[in-house]
Amino acid sequence: PTWDTAGGGKLLQIQQLVYETEQTLSINDADADSGLTLAITPSASSSKVLISGFLTCGTDAAFGGFGWILKRDTTVIGTPTSGGSGVQNRYHASFLNPFQAIGASTVTPVPFEFLDSPSTTSATTYTLTARGVSGTSNIYLNRSSVTTMVYTSILTLMEIDGS
């Protein structure tokens, strides 16, 4: 959308999570909560929320592939509504292509961004979740699989005046 700064588009508030927890997320044909969760309470129902940041992750093997999805409360947002070979093949941000293996000490930064219209003045929670396609494997959040390198991931929510 195009923003007219005379009437809207002003930054109203910022919430940020610098996530330092190292995690092993087991992916087995299902979604796995990353722990990257942050809430914001919009000041007006016309406000937009810009969600941005990056994840830093590694893996020890590849299988049918996995990526990241973004949720507003329990609703998946910012992913394709059709295509792929089903809901497990629709992501907001890509981590690895299917069947791609990387070295044990390799980490990959995964940037993401989405402009949401929550249409509420209630506290709204945004969460990043890992989504697998098939098989079993691990995603290592904020570290490589050999734990010799550690990192942070960041989730930022910005309320933008939508009037």
Structural shape:
globular
Euclidean distance between termini CA atoms = 13 Å
State the low-pLDDT regions, or none.
none
How many individual β-strands? 11
Strand content: over 45%
**Largest sheet features:** 6 strands, antiparallel
Mean pLDDT, all residues: 79
Order of helices and strands: EEEEEEEEEEE
Number of helices: 0
Characterise the protein shown here.
- By secondary structure, the chain is mainly beta.
- It has strands at about 10-20, 25-30, 30-40, 50-60, 65-70, 75, 95, 110-115, 125-130, 135-140, 155-160.
- The strands form two sheets. Strands 1, 2, 4, 8, 10 and 11 form a six-stranded antiparallel sheet that branches. Strands 3, 5, 6, 7 and 9 form a five-stranded antiparallel sheet that branches.
- Strand 5 and strand 6 form a beta hairpin.
- The radius of gyration is 17 Å and the shape is globular.
- The model has no long low-confidence stretch (mean pLDDT about 80).
Topology:
Layout: E1 11-19, E2 23-28, E3 31-40, E4 48-59, E5 66-72, E6 75-77, E7 93-96, E8 108-116, E9 124-132, E10 136-141, E11 153-160
Antiparallel strand pairs: 1-11, 2-10, 3-9, 4-8, 4-10, 4-11, 5-6, 5-7, 5-9
